[in-house]
């Protein structure tokens, strides 16, 4: 890469560009991470004791999670709910992505994409708050459902997982739609025609021709959504509290309320490791390689 | 089984644009029928209407006498070979061939039997487990044919499937397609802009231009007796000479072609005295020596090309029109060189006159 840059911009600029990238990667990504790894293996001490005889490496911070039944439960609930969010987002996004890529005229597709993107110019917290209003006990959604006679009593969306799921599906839908849209768009339309021509109905055409082709896009979308969902803080904090707590909230509490960065770092790494492991497992089950995702 | 196809007063419009003018055409059961025309003439639209990807704006498509209105593409007794073949790249060769049967709920063992039989038909025995990407262009072609035949269609639609192949393979596949058509006895509807393909394989050809069928005939008739100026110039090479009708018999028409004198050709359709008309003479019908009853026009040679078994001359008439002439190589002499005058003669039975102002 350096040689390419050098050939194009000359060595001075090439050193500058590479240097800036290196500073950014090392100083802002790698070193802080390493620092957190270091933190996570050390006890939380008073400033005076840091570097002293009590400051030894141990797995104690990691063991805390497995000794705390409540935290452990929230930990697994977070993973499971993230799976649920990912699945729901996929179910909502796939038809939209297919419509945009193969059914809509280019003008309509452009309009739809714009309408999908515009809300995301607004801050995530604000968007989540608007869901807070919509889903409130005496909010417009309940009023609508009551008005239509679909329910007898307002539903408490906001004190359980329901509100969190809705909020997250909405928050991450673009991360799912775009990779799938890109993948489906690259499918030769004659493939769909050929399947139809050979007698396949719509379900089979999707199952045998379109979805296999879109698999890398689906995998990318699912991984992004899963990681974002598992690491989400704002949505569960606003739409789920106190009935539905997310593991990220516990990590936050360790850092900023418990003042125990070491413990927080250990929790954060446990979440990261489990998420990566889970993704690797899913990729293996669905036979998707890293190369497919990078396409 | 009746596998005729009837375009019953079919019209296809896309918004304001009429892709297919009102067409009434019957394609016989078991016929090898081609639609020939330049790109944009509407031939692909016809194929899409027959296969059910689009429905005609007016009229109907009948297959085996049954109306196809409202019958979706996946329920029609047709199967299509796409221009880019559209084989499923993520499936094996056998899975590709068996796809249509899988859809129909045929058991695995029956499917296997069918794909083995079809692989044999297209001379690719034992390739079932291969991936599509492992095949050569010609092999992919044959797999596409096998896949389309697997569903036992009444009508096979072919959308310029040979255009991506090199010349040798293309010629070979022509013979093979024709053989497969004879073996299976189903109706083949072939669309192409390549007249060589249309003329060598087809029982009948429909020549299309701008959404309209210009003429439907067997290849020889199409070549010898084109009905319109478009067909005359699109099918095979042709020389058109403009003139005014001075004598219109039932069989022959005489044109006054200005500085080229009076020229005669067979009458093709009706013409009135004084009408504009075009006389068409094919390059191979010109002779250098006049015999009795031949008509002659004068030109000067512009270019001589030696093509092996024949020569082509490019000559300019005094009316500043370029003619192309094809001669047997044995007729070559030193007299044929750039700038030399040449008299070109033809038999009036070999020329045709088509009335109308324009020729393409």
UniProtKB/TrEMBL annotation, chain A:
Keywords: Cell membrane, Membrane, Transmembrane, Transmembrane helix, Transport. The keyword Transmembrane helix applies. Signal peptide: none annotated. The chain crosses the membrane at residues 12-35, 79-101, 163-184, 264-286. It is found in: Cell membrane. CDD domains: TM_PBP2. One of its GO terms (biological process) is transmembrane transport. Residues 75-282 form the ABC transmembrane type-1 domain. One of its GO terms (cellular component) is plasma membrane. Belongs to the binding-protein-dependent transport system permease family. CysTW subfamily. PANTHER family: INNER MEMBRANE ABC TRANSPORTER PERMEASE PROTEIN YDCU-RELATED, INNER MEMBRANE ABC TRANSPORTER PERMEASE PROTEIN YDCU-RELATED-RELATED. This is ABC transporter permease. It comes from Marinomonas hwangdonensis.
UniProtKB/TrEMBL annotation, chain B:
InterPro entries: AAA+_ATPase, ABC_SmlMolc_Importer, ABC_transporter-like_ATP-bd, ABC_transporter-like_CS, Mo/tungstate-bd_C_term_dom, P-loop_NTPase, Transp-assoc_OB_typ2. GO terms for cellular component: ATP-binding cassette (ABC) transporter complex. PROSITE patterns: ABC_TRANSPORTER_1, ABC_TRANSPORTER_2. Pfam families: ABC_tran, TOBE_2. Residues 5-235 form the ABC transporter domain. It comes from the Bacteria. The keyword Glycoprotein does not apply. This is ABC transporter ATP-binding protein. It comes from Marinomonas hwangdonensis.
